[in-house]
Design goal:
By secondary structure, the protein is α/β, with parallel strands linked by helices. The protein is 64% helix and 8% strand. The chain starts with a strand and ends with a helix.
Length: 348
């Protein structure tokens, strides 16, 4: 519900407006009637007013002076001027202060309908503004956005950014605050995750230059989409870098008898299942088979080029049990280490 004040030095006009509307059906409460602008200002110092319906010509403080004061001191309060003066200068002057409408007396049914629509619009705007403000300051709002960011749920984020058309009745100021909240949450998430998404100052600079509500929405949507694309690229790059690090580690340590999926996962602080899946996605073989391949390749080299015993070669390529080494070698080469040496090196 919005709070409405009527200002006119003519009691007949006040009574007419008071009685012609079904205020509650319009989403409004008529909270005060005044004879001049000064009375309105005094009342507003202690009370919240959403709409002032005012005459132009009044003693003490006229309608134009009232419009000017309200536009500066109470920018969220709307104004409608009802005047007997069909003077363009009056209308132009009041419009400069952001009045909703300038309605000429006498008030007929068409003008009553127009005024009813204005009151309803302002009531819906306040309702949207209050609800949107509650969303902005709800701790769950930030948590939900960050959760969607953490799993790159573009559908949820799009729904949050789009906003129902209802909320666009709330007005530019609260809409800009909403989208700034979205940008601020993203900035915080970027810092928390250590992302190298483009400079924080650049986001702030671009956002600060925007005023149109649709443009604010489009910018926020585009910024989130660009971040999700960048985050996907970062993850892929990170995975590739991790794969290269692990492959190099295996290449340098395949002769370690304790080398296996679990020991590598522990060293690189990743889940063993994730490690196995990631390695297989970046390689033609599983991590376990890659280790075996490295060991068998080195064993073949030693069998061909040295006189080391099979027992010694077993140890040099990372196995503790020579019988197990023999089985692994035969499964991969289709002959035992001794048979391989005879074939490719001759008798020792």
């Amino acid at each position: 519900m919005i709070n409405v004040v009527i200002v006119d030095d003519d009691i007949n006009v006040i009574n007419g407006l008071k009685n012609v509307f079904k205020w509650e059906e319009l989403g409004a409460n008529l909270v005060m009637t005044c004879k001049n602008g000064k009375e309105v200002i005094d009342y507003m110092q202690e009370n919240n007013v959403d709409l002032v319906i005012s005459d132009i010509k009044m003693p003490v403080m006229n309608g134009i002076e009232l419009c000017k004061h309200i536009s500066v001191q109470y920018p969220n309060t709307s104004m409608v001027i009802i005047s007997a003066y069909a003077d363009f200068e009056y209308a132009r002057e009041t419009m400069k202060y952001g009045v909703e409408d300038y309605i000429l007396k006498p008030i007929n049914m068409t003008k009553i309908k127009s005024l009813s629509e204005i009151i309803t619009k302002i009531a819906k705007s306040k309702d949207a503004r209050l609800k949107l403000n509650a969303i902005i300051h709800n701790i769950d709002f930030e948590r939900n956005v960050k959760n969607a960011l953490s799993v790159s749920d573009s559908d949820i984020l799009k729904e949050i950014i789009q906003l129902d058309d209802f909320y666009f009745k709330a007005g530019h100021q609260i809409i800009k605050e909403y989208y700034w909240k979205m940008i601020d949450i993203l900035r915080g998430f970027i810092k928390e995750t250590g992302s190298e998404f483009y400079e924080d100052e650049e986001i702030i600079k671009q956002f600060g230059q925007l005023n149109d509500m649709q443009t604010l929405r489009d910018f926020t949507m585009r910024t989130y989409e660009e971040f999700l694309d960048f985050r996907s690229f970062e993850k892929q790059t990170s995975k590739k870098t991790l794969f290269e690090q692990i492959r190099l580690y295996i290449d340098n340590n395949f002769n370690d008898t304790q080398l296996n999926v679990n020991s590598i996962a522990e060293r690189f602080n990743v889940n063993p299942s994730y490690l196995s899946s990631m390695f297989k996605n970046h390689s033609s073989v599983s991590l376990t088979n890659y280790i075996i391949d490295k060991r068998i390749k080195k064993a073949k080299e030693l069998l061909e080029e040295t006189n080391q015993t099979v027992q010694k070669i077993t140890e040099l390529v990372g196995y503790e049990d020579v019988n197990y080494f023999n089985r692994v070698f035969k499964n991969n080469v289709k002959m035992t280490p001794t048979e391989y040496r005879k074939k490719y090196k001759g008798k020792v």
